[in-house]
Design the sequence.
C-alpha cells in the first residue's frame, strides 16, 4: 500500500499533534507547518498528497494559502476552523478547498474526511466507462482529468466527483441530497448549500472554456443537459 504524505498546517501545536497522531495511526506520513508561509514552502518542495489547513494562522492565513495553492495546482485541501460561520465555510469552498471541518472536531471524523477526499482525488470509480463524453467535454475517470474543447479544466477532487456524477446521468434530475449521496462518502456531513457552492465553481470553470452543460432546476436540484 502506498503511503500518503499529509501536510498539517496549524499555528496551534496541540492541534498539530492531535491531527498528526490520528493520521499516523492510519499509516499516513505527516509533515508539520506552524504558519501559512511555511505551509506554502512545504507544498512547493513537493511530495505532499493532501493539506490539512487551518484558517486562522498568523501572517498568511489559511484562506490566502488556499488561494495560492489553487493558483499553482490541484493538491487536495481539507480546511479547519474554530469559526463555525457559514460564510467562512462557503468562502473556503469558493477558494477551492475540497472539504471543511469545524473545531472542535473528532479526530476520527477528520480522518474519515481526509480519506474521502483522497479517494476522490486518486481512485478511479468502479465503472466500466473510463471516459464520459458530453459534447466537447470529456471526463477521464482513470486519469482524473476533465477537458472541454481540448482545454484542460482544473477541478478539485470534490468538483470532479460532482461533475462526473451529473454527466454520467445526462438528462436525469438529481436533487442536492442525491448528489451528496453519490458524490461523497457515506457519513459525510455535507449541506445543500455546500453542493450549490461546488456546482457554482464547476460552472464558472466550464463557462471559461465556452461550455456549460449543467442546468439548475429551481427548488429541485441539477441535471446535465443533453449535448446538442
Sequence:
Amino acid at each position: 500500500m502506498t503511503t500518503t504524505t499529509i501536510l498539517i498546517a496549524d499555528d496551534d501545536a496541540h492541534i498539530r499533534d492531535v491531527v498528526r497522531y490520528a493520521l499516523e495511526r492510519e499509516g499516513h506520513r505527516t509533515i508539520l507547518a506552524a504558519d501559512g508561509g511555511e505551509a506554502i514552502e512545504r507544498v512547493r518542495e513537493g511530495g505532499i498528497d493532501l493539506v490539512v489547513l487551518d484558517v486562522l494562522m498568523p501572517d498568511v492565513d489559511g484562506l490566502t494559502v488556499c488561494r495560492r495553492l489553487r493558483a499553482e495546482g490541484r493538491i487536495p485541501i481539507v480546511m479547519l476552523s474554530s469559526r463555525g460561520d457559514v460564510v467562512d465555510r462557503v468562502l473556503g469552498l469558493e477558494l477551492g478547498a475540497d472539504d471543511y471541518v469545524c473545531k472542535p472536531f473528532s479526530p476520527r471524523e477528520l480522518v474519515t474526511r481526509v480519506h474521502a477526499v483522497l479517494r476522490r482525488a486518486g481512485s478511479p470509480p468502479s465503472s466500466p466507462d473510463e471516459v464520459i463524453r458530453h459534447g466537447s467535454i470529456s471526463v477521464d475517470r482513470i486519469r482524473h482529468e476533465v477537458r472541454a474543447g481540448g482545454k484542460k479544466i482544473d477541478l478539485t477532487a470534490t468538483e470532479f466527483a460532482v461533475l462526473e456524477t451529473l454527466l454520467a446521468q445526462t438528462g436525469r434530475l438529481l436533487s442536492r441530497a442525491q448528489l451528496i449521496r453519490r458524490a461523497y462518502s457515506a457519513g459525510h456531513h455535507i449541506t445543500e448549500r455546500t453542493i450549490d457552492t461546488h456546482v457554482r465553481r464547476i460552472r464558472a470553470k466550464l463557462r471559461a472554456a465556452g461550455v456549460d452543460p449543467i442546468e439548475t432546476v429551481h427548488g429541485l436540484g441539477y441535471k446535465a443537459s443533453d449535448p446538442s
Observations:
- The helical segments are 13-25, 36-45, 62-72, 86-94, 107-122, 157-167, 176-183, 192-208.
- The longest helix spans residues 192-208.
